[in-house]
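**Entry details**
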Amino acid sequence: MGERIRSYDWSRTPLGPVRQWPLSLRITLSNLLHSAFPMFLFWGDELLCFYNDAFRPSLGENGKHPALGLRGKEVWPETWDFIGPLIRNVMATGKPAWYEDQLLPIFRNGTLENVYWTFSYSPAYGDSGAICGVLVTCMETTAHVNSRREIEETVARRTAELKAAHHSLLQANSYLQNLINLSCEPLQVLEPVIENGIITDFRYKLTNAAYSAYANTTPEALQGRRVSEVFPGYLQTSSFTNVAETYRTGVPQSWEIHYDQDGLDLYNQMSATRMDEQVVVYFTDFTRLKHLQLELLDKIGELERSNQHLEEFAHAASHDLKEPIRKIQLFTNILKDQLDPDGKEAEWRTLDKMDKATKRMSHLVDDLLLYSHVSQKPHEKEAVDLGEEIRAVLEDLEVEVETKKAVVLYEGMPRVMGYRRQLQQLFQNLISNALKYCRAGVPPVVELSARKAEEKGVPVYHIQVRDNGIGFEPRYAEKIFQMFTRLHGKDEYAGTGVGLSIAKKVAENHGGWIRAESTPGQGAVFTVSLPVS
């Protein structure tokens, strides 16, 4: 089209030779000719026509092309009643116009064709800034419109086919009934009974044999009846209220129900889903499983009572063992007094072994008694200042602290609701362990700190006891809280292996926990979690 414009005799037109054209027209035409998008220009009072190569196919093989330099009304007589006023309005107001899929029949290829366009009419300005023409950017959308109509016709045809299929499906209700009867899960399709705008009941539209068996009847006998006629008590349960809510809101629901109406005792997992003007309800009967669960709970209760009895027995047995052990210690001391100081060395070693074994047994019985006491919670908790309890512990351990030149630091300890004696015992066990398991030649340093935290949205205190002792392998972090667990021989470090079990029991009695972290040779950190008062 650029070549056509250059070779056209413009001297015969109001524009005159190209060299006399205004700069604005030449710039606009340059942009138009170099665009890959279909564009058309009406210029001057005569609305002379220009267009680019991209617009050329829209004019057809014969008819309007070439339209270069012709007046717009001459080129587009069949559509001028529509586009003429549109062009004049854009030139007069400067406001652009936009149309999508607009039908504008044009004469091309020897006939008048119905052509659809999406186009924009925009003002084109001259050198003086006045509007001298209208720039048209457009795209023929005939194929798109025809395709859309074909799709709409296809959708309409498919919709009609679906309606016919739906009608056939309704006629196949007998087949459907036989099919759903194969399901072992009770199923019902319900229609609401609405009175004065309120759902007062439901009516059976469809059920299966698994459901109708609960009423000792058949699906055919239930069809059309109100549910309350068959199960009057259901109106007082969630099997009515939740289904009514599902119908009102359209939101599916699933819930558990203990149905103890109408002489039944059932545990069901029910689900309800609205479908058009009906609600599909199905459920799984887990009555037998629930009864097993209740039996299991009874067994757990029996086991807890048995454990309680065992703890009471352990307490009584430990208490009764103290007197025989005391007598063994007494008689051992009497034998020592009676033995000649210059007597046989083997006899003295035997008595020393008896004495040490008896003392270990005495300590073990004491720890068992203490564990038994810890297992029995006091009736009421009280406000306990942990700082005061730690000070009391340090007074009891004063000699050991001074002997080992230990440093025990603590500050900011909170007040909690708990069992005073148990909490004191917890910190006594942790601090005494930190003093016991120290490194040779290194004075023990024990640091206690506390901070607030949250566990599952519940505020708690995390209290840490950190030492610089011998530490332990991380794989023992849980095992050390088990009863009678010792990581070292009795000749290396004294103890019964009960202290940390007591600490764990105290933490659990307060609704908390205790955990340990350590690396060999780098000390250990014990963290106790206690609820905030």
